[in-house]
Design goal:
mainly alpha, Arc Repressor Mutant, subunit A, Tetracycline Repressor, domain 2, 2 domains
């Protein structure tokens, strides 16, 4: 049975720039799905090209080899997980605990999406083969969030709300305590309810802040 033709495949003649970009995005998304389903070794360029309705020649015209296609597909997935600075700033309502809880829920919520789960599982599965993907995910997606949290903690120190501390380490502790544990459970298939998630985020944020309060 032949798959229905997607809007990006209709029409004759040279595709528009928008159509070409849409087809490229489709190629990368399809590639990432197949790499996750079958593993890097078992996934072939021919398999990816067939699934997306392209020829191998078309794929190889853009990517010299399978590894280059894989790394670009992962990079696209990472970019979709980056939280813009203005989104983080909108979560800052002046209350440190509430802001940290909102950031934690946002970050965990990203991982619970199909795109977020796919990225984390691909990194877990292929990170030993391509260690740069783990570093890229940390530097591009997690690092800006850590730096924003560190800024919030700097402000809280200046206001006397928490004791002086290494805010970079404290922000990393936030990511580990509030986000990391939930993310690992979600990636392994244990998806919390919204009530469970709210309770855990609230508990771990306050546990962290209790340890930072002036004595």
């Amino acid at each position: 049975m032949t798959d229905a033709i997607s809007p990006t495949r209709r029409g004759a003649g040279r595709p528009t720039r928008e159509q070409a970009e849409a087809r490229h995005r489709e190629l990368l998304d399809t590639a990432l799905k197949l790499f996750l389903e079958n593993g890097f070794e078992m996934t072939t360029v021919e398999m990816i090209a067939k699934r997306v309705g392209m020829t191998k020649r078309t794929v190889y015209a853009r990517y010299p080899d399978k590894a280059a296609l894989f790394l670009t597909a992962v990079q696209r997935a990472i970019e979709r997980q980056i939280v813009p600075r203005d989104v983080l700033e909108d979560l800052d309502r002046g209350d440190l605990a509430e802001t940290l809880e909102a950031i934690g829920r946002l970050r965990i919520g990203q991982v619970m999406t199909p795109d977020g789960l796919r990225l984390q599982r691909v990194i877990n599965a292929e990170g030993y083969r391509f260690p740069t993907i783990f570093k890229a995910n940390v530097e591009q997606s997690a690092r800006p969030l850590i730096e924003f949290v560190a800024g919030l903690l700097d402000r809280a120190i200046a206001a006397g709300d928490i004791a002086p501390t290494d805010t970079g380490l404290a922000a990393n502790a936030f990511m580990s305590m509030v986000v990391g544990g939930s993310v690992r459970a979600i990636v392994s298939g244990s998806t919390p309810t919204s009530e469970q998630l709210d309770r855990k985020v609230h508990f771990t944020v306050h546990l962290l802040l209790d340890g930072l309060r002036p004595r």
